[in-house]
Amino acid sequence: MTADPHAADRRTVIPLDPSLAPPGTRGFRDAGGIPADRWHADQHGETLVPTHCCFCGVQCGMYLRVDRGGKVFGVEPRDHDINRMRLCPKGINAYQQVNHPDRLTAPLMRRSRDEDLREVSWDEALDFTVSEIRRIQQNHGNDAFGVLGGASLFSEKTYLVGKFARVALKTRHVDYNGRLCMVSAAGANKLAFNIDRAGNPFSDILLTDCLLLAGANVGECFPVLTQYVWGARDRGATLIVIDPRETAVARTADIHVALRSGTDAAFFTAVLHVVIEEGLTDESYLAAHTTGWEEVKANAAHYPPSRAAEICGIPAEQVVQVARAFARAPKAMAFHARGIEHHTQGVENCLTVINLCAATGHIGKPGAGYGTLTGQGNGQGGREHGQKADLLPGGRSILNEEHRRQICEIWGIKESELPLAGTSMMEMVWQMQRGEIRGLIGVCNNPFVSLPNYSVVKDGYDTTEFHAQFDFFLSETAANAHVVFPVTVWAEDEGVMANAEARVVKHNKAQEPPPGVRTDTWVMCELARRLGAGDKFAFGGSRDVFDELRRASAGTIIDYSGITYERLEETGGIAWPCPSTDHPGTPRLFEDGTTYHADGKIHLQVVEWHPPADPYDDEHPMTLTTGRTVAHFLSGNQTRRLGALVEQTPRPWAEVHPSHGFRNGEPVRVVTRRGSEVFPALVTEAIRPDTVFIPYHWPAPAAANALTIDALDPRSKIPEYKVCACRVEHAERIDEVPAPPVAPGHVAYPETQVSRTDPLPPSAPQGRGTSERS
Questions:
Q1: In angstroms, rounded to a whole number, what is the distance separating the alpha carbons of residues 575 and 588?
Q2: How far apart are CA 583 and CA 749, in angstroms?
Q3: Is residue 5 exposed (0-12), middle (13-18) or buried (19+ Cβ within 10 Å)?
Q4: 184 φ, ψ to 5°?
Q5: 570 Cβ contact partners less than 8 Å away, ≥ 6 residues apart
Q6: Measured between alpha carbons, how far apart are the two ends of the chain, in Å?
Q7: DSSP 202
Q8: What is the mean pLDDT of each run of 10 residues along the chain (774 residues)?
């Protein structure tokens, strides 16, 4: 790679169109005030490698700065049409992972958990792993061993996770951490449209007249996506936010509905009730393009605004306001995220949003449609090609005989050798507790922080006879394993991800991995070879895997066969389905009113609201809800090691309403039926008085997920992270935040330790703080 030849051109001042620029912006821009326009490679011998961020589902374009020695040392924003020179705090710090002193550079191993982990050779770690796999499977059957993958892996690697489990291990037990993220939306999309992806590209947000965001804290979880929100607002679009908290974006909304967590289905069905009662439905669209409308309409009659007001704890008038704003808009869009998906009726919550969009005809048009905001970088691609318990590559069903035959032919195995569907990630932990799954390989996940009800998770993993983990840092989960394989970070390999638009983008290799580190692909292929399945895993690298993935997806709904690395480099990304190399991709679905069901229609679904799984009582009268914060990502295994991000947000807190009598920084004990922990109080009027919010990026004893409930949606098997019964109490001492684990012989990176000991919550709360930090 060479420095961008157009860098000088980009430094030319481009005056803004005054009709599009907010007041004062033109003068600021023309004076050269936007730093991104001045950023360019100016170090002699420096190379800029175009790639994408490793974190969320926006997948911002960036350049990694590589010095003459071949080492990544910095980052520049890239003028990619996803992010247009913008990066969030995580994005601008992501490069620091690559050469971080906490990196694992040798396999770690112990033969029993009574021993300490020690560095060993690759041969010893691989041989021990293979011998344990064989021992467990010979004594207890193939299904006694399981695999858990991750949705931050490249799609090539997620494809390999599923194939490795089913072909090399011959086990049905494979799932992935996207089970904690996207599966409720996926389930709803499949039921309604028979396709699992967002219907519209991000750029359509700029064309809409009304934007509804439900359970989506865009400002913190998808910061760069806010440019599309503000672009729509600059055009005069109405903004509606549904969230129990007044997030940064909710604070700017025309309508903010601070409903009680766990009541979304009742709310959206009541909004539909008003749309019907006021004659705002698109009857011609419904007649031509939907099934099940009369049943949905009859059910909505039972949810007048007064009933929603009682269930949701909001004014009935807000239901009417939302209905009129959304239905009367010439073009409206609805997006949701984990806030409505992390529930025991997560699939049904999503279906109520689909019902609303279909009833108003806001589907499949520029500026009108529906979609999900993906949490992990490859949250979309990670569930498409076979590491999900019930799916084969191309989104094929593992229970469908024709689908099984097709994949067995590509993989060169007999259909009788292909296992049936496995169980979900949380269910696998329960099976580990019961001794049904006795061995496990984890790839790019950290369930000790990310799964609910930590005591159950810890017990499940401790009960296993053997556990191996792939990672580039020693996560809390890896620190509990028998074997830890040191693998590459995203900048040390190449591959593709599919972002929240279902746009497939190409990540490029920027530097060689440290000595002793291997790619996830190499490790899986080498394990398969030693298990006797090497002929099925003769891949030299990502390109070879991608070629097979393309063939395996050909002719399916999730068709990648027309996507090549070369086309991705040339175009900046292609939305699937893309069935041929001359096909432009499919950025917008349903433009002709046709879905992927056999009848081509949207299958609307009746939804009845039901209460959350964890009942309220006098001992637990409040709601605990959880979520992300802008500085950290998922389990924090990466971001809790980056000094600037730790300094910005050193520890979790309990966000509480001032009516509970706490002052900022005072210890507040949050108690659920799973246990209790003590956090510093962040006192703000931006949260409902009956609700407590805790960010979840930290391990026990400061873990939100030590308190959450492991109840699952019966369809998607997603845990109910967003609502459980709790109470708050005054306490004496705040629980300590543990340092991230490090490999034997290493010391904790000092930059991440100083701020971590700060007992106070962040100095800049998301909401309107009522106490001074002192």
A1: 9
A2: 49
A3: exposed
A4: -65, -45
A5: none
A6: 50
A7: G
A8: 40 36 36 39 80 97 97 96 96 96 97 97 98 98 98 98 98 97 96 97 98 97 96 97 96 97 98 98 98 98 98 98 98 98 98 98 97 92 96 97 98 97 98 98 98 98 98 98 98 98 98 98 98 98 98 98 97 98 98 97 98 98 97 95 89 95 95 97 95 97 97 98 98 93 85 62 49 39
Tokens standing for 606?
Answer: 């009746």
Distance of alpha carbon 496 from alpha carbon 572, whole angstroms: 11
DSSP letter (8 states) at residue 78: -
Q: Is the pTM of this model over 0.85?
A: yes
In the numeric block, which tokens belong to residue 622? 């409040």
Beta strands in 274-382 (DSSP E): 290-291, 332-336, 369-372
CA distance to 25, 275, 681, 767, per residue, from 351 (Å): 41, 16, 36, 30
Residue 92 host element (H or E): helix 89-93
* Cβ neighbours, 10 Å, residue 112: 7
DSSP string, 474-495: --TTGGGSSEEEEB--GGGS-E
**CA distances (Å), 644 to each of 93, 94, 122, 639, in order?**
8, 11, 34, 9
- Matching residue, tokens 């100016």: 42
Residues in the chain: 774
Of 285, 288, 303, which Cα lies nearest the Cα of 368? Answer: 285
Q: Please spell the DSSP secondary structure of 715-746, one letter per residue.
A: TT--B-TT-EEEEEEE-SSPPPPPPPP--TT-
